[in-house]
Amino acid sequence: MRVAGWMSGTAVLAMTAAVPVTAQTPRREAIVRLVEQRHDATVKALQAWIALPTIAAEKRNVAEGADYMRRLALDAGFQQAKVIPTDGVPGVFATLDSGAKTTLGIYFMYDVKQFDPAEWNSPPLEGKLVDRAGEGLTIVGRGAVNQKGPQMAFLAAIKAIQASG
What we know:
A four-stranded mixed sheet has the order 2-3-1-4, covered by helices on one side. A two-stranded antiparallel ribbon has the order 5-6. By secondary structure, the protein is α+β, with helices and mostly antiparallel strands. Helices cover 33% and strands 20% of the residues.
């Protein structure tokens, strides 16, 4: 299956939510507790994701990055996730069906921009934890802010929501 360039180098995650999670509910408290309990494991998973340089502009590790993103989606509870060939770099399409009437589509990219290690204060592929003034403990690495960090936070939340019942 070939898909147009819009999906090149991306991960598209579609999911439905069966039960809304509103403020001040026991389920919300359970979700927050699970996220907190899994924090260290999530940070380690993000560091591993940052360590894989997925640079579409250089066609560097794009197949590996797509497969890694596919496995992350499956690990988060998506029922299916597959790598989709495109005219450019591969995309990923995953679905998580909870039986709800409404579908939510989420679009992520899994590639990062090129980098020059000499321009970094920390190794760009290490995902080092750095105590930054005014910010606190921060993970620093290529993709930590755009896009691997937000992906990992989203997937950690999905795992916690599912585990909370």
